[in-house]
Amino acid sequence: MAKSKDVRITVILECTSCVRNVGNKVSTGISRYMTQKNQHNTPNQLELRKFCPYCYKHTIHGEIKK
């Protein structure tokens, strides 16, 4: 049988606006989402617009390192 190359990997997306406001103690937490991406189709870091429950609006969530 052929060996699988694990093309799809699990990544963590973190809210970029919550990270900036942590020093000011504006937000009560950091919004994080888990998703999968294809390494061959998207070799660069992933950024998606998701809802942040701490900011109460849709913001850009960027990929972080594990």
UniProtKB/TrEMBL annotation:
The record's listing under Pfam families reads: Ribosomal_L33
What is its subcellular localisation? Plastid, Chloroplast
CC per GO annotation: chloroplast; ribonucleoprotein complex; ribosome
Its keywords, alphabetically, are: Chloroplast, Plastid, Ribonucleoprotein, Ribosomal protein
Keyword match Plastid: yes
- Write out the GO biological process terms: translation
One Gene Ontology term of the molecular function aspect? structural constituent of ribosome
Q: Which family does it belong to?
A: Belongs to the bacterial ribosomal protein bL33 family.
- This one is known as Large ribosomal subunit protein bL33c
Q: Which organism is it from?
A: Kolkwitzia amabilis
What lineage, starting at the top, does this entry show?
Eukaryota, Viridiplantae, Streptophyta, Embryophyta, Tracheophyta
